[in-house]
Amino acid sequence: MAVNLKVNGRAVEVQSEPDTPLLWVIRDEIGLTGTKFGCGAKLCGACTVLLDGEPIRSCSTPVSRAAGREVSTVESLGADNQHPLQRAWIKLDVPQCGYCQSGQLMSAKALLDGNKNPSDAEIDEAMKGNICRCGTYVRVRAAIKVAAADIRGAKS
Question: How confident is the model over 11-41, as pLDDT tens digits?
Fold first, then answer.
């Protein structure tokens, strides 16, 4: 069955059953492998993408839910590592194993798209569904603050 959606600003038609998890369509049919499979039960956040700007778990979201809508994956941040979040992640050496980072980045992007100066509590709330086995939560929070400052500075 054909499903039309927009992925990272590009119109895409995929041939998938409506109940196929969006994660597998993104990875296997579209070929964007930055989004990771973690638990498959929408608990860990490794598969987080944005659907019309809102973070969702792509492992449990049927592709039919994304029909006609905008899907943003970690690749939408750019391959040149120049997005403020990417720069902050690198500057503060956030990832250890790195597996959860695509989901962390997308949750952070959704937060900063709506709040350019989040408090620690707001960051913690926005990121609470993203599990990091390595425990880099303190660096994630610090990197979000660095990226937020960068974004605010770029707009002034």
Answer: 999 999 999 999 999 999 999 999 999 999 9
d(CA 37, CA 87): 24
How many other CB atoms sit within 10 Å of the CB of residue 33? 13
CB-CB contact of 129 with 97 (8 Å):
no
CA gap 14, 1 in Å, rounded: 8
pTM attached to this predicted model: 0.95
List of E strands, 9-89: 10-15, 48-51, 54-57, 70-72
Structure tokens at 57: 């778990």
Structure tokens belonging to residue 32: 């964007």
Q: How many residues does the chain have?
A: 156
State whether the Cα torsion 129-21-72-98 is positive or negative.
Answer: positive
Quote the CA–CA distance of 145 and 139 in Å, as a whole number: 10
Q: What's the CA gap between 123 and 110, in Å, rounded?
A: 11
Torsion of CA 91, 92, 93, 96, to 10 degrees: -150
